[in-house]
Amino acid sequence: MNLLLRSATVVDSNSKYNQKQTDIFIKDGIISSIGKQIKTEGKFKEIDCKGLSISPGWFDMQVSFCDPGFEHKEDIESGVKAAAAGGFTGVAVLPDTHPALHSKSEIEYILNRAKGKIVDVHALGAITRKCEGKELAEIYDMHHAGAVAYSDASNPVIDSGVMMRALQYVKLFDGVVFSHPDDVNVSHEGSMNEGIMSTNLGLKGMPSLAEELMVVRDIYLAEYTQSRVHFSIISTARSVDLIRAAKKKGVKVTCGVSSMHLLFDDSELSEFDSNFKLNPSLRTKKDIAALIAGLKDGTIDVIVSAHQPQNIELKDVEFEYADFGAINLQTSFALANTSVGNNIGMESLIEKISINPRKILGLKIPTIKENDEANFTLFNSNEEWSLLKAKNKSKSNNTPLFGKKLNGRVVAVFNHNQLLQS
After folding, report:
1. pLDDT for 314-361, tens place per residue?
2. Res 101: pLDDT
């Protein structure tokens, strides 16, 4: 495909064109030329990009495509469509499927099913068999099959010895282990953040302590093993402080935050909307302020959607019995842009959703420069829009955001010589 972008503003800290408005010509999937008033011959598609920004294609480190085993919630086809519509050209899928992604055959299944699509689908291998936290999975075999990191999804590895051995094992190839920080012995059967709101609603709370205890443990384990740990989603002010201190000590620790947790606090649960039932749970306004501060000073490395499809039977029940999770691929950028775009700046926001995720996973980072393969997201950070059910690309509808006004719209994505316009 030959494509000419007219007057796009580049947002890419790795590009010499960063913050400049320029034309970009893509020929057969390669960025052929960048400059003012580019003249071309032959057949090509032209997009007027005045008022639009272009960045390296976005990457989401924390999504569930539910395939294999739970395809009634989502599958690779529908997940890719939702990701592309949300501006993502790359994702890493969670391993808590059926069967779990705990051996090379499951990793190969994911990579083969997703081959050639506009969105690069990478697999997170399970840390333990069936994501049960007991016996290490086939970590080395999965590494050679193409797993980019290791996670037990929303199942915390409670056994410290198992977590330590996983961290030691991945040192063989400089791998990274994801931690879902939640001491379930403390948060057991909780439905929401423990605090004034949970007391008012009469719901069992999930104390912030449950997250922070595991953050402390895994920081110590990372320091002891001299290995890499990534906290998939943190949600409390104290977690930010702990990770900030660990980074200053030189511990090999990184972390992410969900875009939902940057905008919404536990007061959203006053109407018992189960689509706001998340794990980790929505916290307080004080926690949100600390998370934003952590993004601003570099303590928090990435922003994720935490896309978790659930069928209606698991959500349209009494709040305490509903499953955790919300779909968020199509709305994640808008939530992050609304909550922190002006606070941390667009360049920093793009680093959190495009560059840093790939850096942590050791993947090639696309750049807006000549002779590179074109992999980009085109967006309008100021446009207001709403997600309608008819425009939802996911198989599931578990989101509280239908019809809500959002700020920041994806216009197009391009990857592997394929263009998708919204």
Report:
1. 999 999 999 999 999 999 999 999 999 889 999 999 999 999 999 999
2. 98
Buried b (16+ CB within 10 A) or exposed e, 154-177: bbbbeeeebbbbbbebbeeeebbb
Cβ(216)–Cβ(242) below 8 Å: yes
User: Cα(286)–Cα(255) distance, rounded to whole angstroms?
Assistant: 19
Q: What distance in Å separates the CA atoms of residue 323 and residue 61, rounded to the nearest whole number?
A: 21
Q: What is the pLDDT of residues 190-243, one digit of tens each?
A: 999 999 999 999 999 999 999 999 999 999 999 999 999 999 999 999 999 999
Sign for the pseudo-dihedral over CA of 16, 21, 22, 25: positive
Distances (CA, A) of 412 to 163, 276, 297, 305, 409: 40, 28, 30, 18, 9
Q: What's the distance, Cα to Cα, between the start and end of the chain in Å? A: 18
CB 265 within 8 A of CB 283: yes
DSSP assignments along 351-414, one per residue: IIIIIHHHHHHTPPPP-SSTTSBP-EEEEEEEEEEEB-GGG--SS----S-BT-EEEEEEEEEE
- pLDDT tens sequence across 240-289: 999 999 999 999 999 999 999 999 999 999 999 999 999 999 999 999 99
The pair phi, psi for residue 148, each rounded to 5°, is -95, -15
For residue 242, give both structure tokens: 């702990």
Please report the domains of the chain, with CATH numbers, ordered by start residue: 2-54+369-421 (2.30.40.10), 58-361 (3.20.20.140)
Rounded to whole angstroms, how far apart are CA atoms 396 and 418? Answer: 26
Q: What does the alpha-carbon distance between residue 94 and residue 180 come to, in Å, rounded to a whole number? A: 12
Provide φ and ψ at 108, rounded to 5°: -65, -35
What's the token pair of residue 151?
């996670």
Tokens matching residue 154: 């929303």
Q: How confident is the model at residue 79 (pLDDT cuts 50, 70, 90)?
A: very high
Q: CA torsion 331→335→337→340, rounded to 10°?
A: -160
Q: Which two tokens stand for residue 262?
A: 């940057």
Q: Report yes or no: 359 and 403 within 8 Å, Cβ to Cβ.
A: no
The CA distance from 14 to 365, in Å, is: 9
